[in-house]
Write a structure and sequence with these properties.
The complex is a heterodimer of chains A (110) and B (118).
Chain A: E1 4-6, E2 9-12, E3 17-24, E4 36-40, E5 47-51, E6 55-56, E7 64-69, E8 72-78, E9 87-95, E10 98-101, E11 105-109
Parallel strand pairs in A: 2-11
Antiparallel strand pairs in A: 1-3, 3-8, 4-5, 4-9, 5-6, 7-8, 9-10, 9-11
Chain B: E1 3-7, E2 10-12, E3 18-25, E4 34-39, E5 45-51, E6 58-60, E7 68-73, E8 78-83, E9 92-99, E10 105-108, E11 112-116
Parallel strand pairs in B: 2-11
Antiparallel strand pairs in B: 1-3, 3-8, 4-5, 4-9, 5-6, 7-8, 9-10, 9-11
């Protein structure tokens, strides 16, 4: 059973920088898992932020960036704003037509 | 612009069936793989199924394998999810999304709620 791990919650001050991570229970995350990131506010559909580790989707501010940090995928928000307060999900492509989402991180900006 | 509109959700008893639809517009539907992703109330996102652009290959999460069937009609620009033997744990908002080409969900619909309850 593949488990994709994310921090359940995180907080950041307005204007601050925060890095959310996406790991695997039994392996290191690499670009071969094509990590992607999604933002979701309550009652809304997810919004795609980052694909293929570090490619921002159209219209996504450049304060959002993706990378591999150590053995995990990472989403960094630089200069956090109040409307960045959301749930953030990563998903990893496991191969053979299978994707697995992480449990999500609830980000608070205060 | 890309539009994905899900329909077909509702209340169904355990053991029952339901078919969801996702009407696509604003892109060449027949050249994109498509996903279903669900979200149980108060829970995170769960990938459910994927179908290649031509319907030649279909993939499922273990939690729905053997009970759900993903399909598409490229002449109607529509994606489907046939859900059989429904369980209470299938209660969720179901989203369709198109695949961005490098293994990610690019655009999402607004979702349709499925409630499995007696």
């Amino acid at each position: 059973q593949t488990v994709v791990t994310q921090e359940p919650s995180f907080s950041v001050s307005p204007g601050g920088t925060v890095t959310l991570t996406c790991g695997l229970s039994s392996a290191s995350v690499s670009t071969s898992y094509y990590p992607s990131w999604y933002q979701q506010t309550p009652g809304q559909a997810p919004r795609t932020l980052i694909s293929g580790t570090n490619t921002r989707s159209s219209g996504v501010p450049d304060r959002f960036s993706g990378s591999i940090l150590g053995n995990k995928a990472a989403l960094t928000i630089t200069g956090a704003q109040a409307d960045d307060e959301s749930d953030y999900y990563c998903v990893l492509y496991m191969g053979s037509g299978i994707w697995v989402f992480g449990g999500g991180t609830k980000l608070t900006v205060l | 612009q890309v539009q994905l509109v899900e329909s077909g959700g509702g209340v169904v008893q355990p053991g029952g069936s339901l078919r969801l639809s996702c009407a696509a517009s604003g892109f060449t539907f027949s050249t994109y793989g498509m996903h279903w992703v669900r979200q149980a109330p108060g829970k995170g996102l769960e990938w459910v199924a994927f179908i290649r652009y031509d319907g030649s290959n279909k993939y499922y999460a273990d939690s729905v394998k053997g009970r759900f069937t993903i399909s598409r009609d490229n002449s109607k620009n529509t994606l489907y999810l046939q859900m059989n033997s429904l369980r209470t744990e299938d209660t969720a908002v179901y989203y369709c999304a198109n695949d961005g080409g490098i293994y990610f969900m690019a655009y999402w619909g607004q979702g349709t709620l499925v409630t499995v309850s007696s």
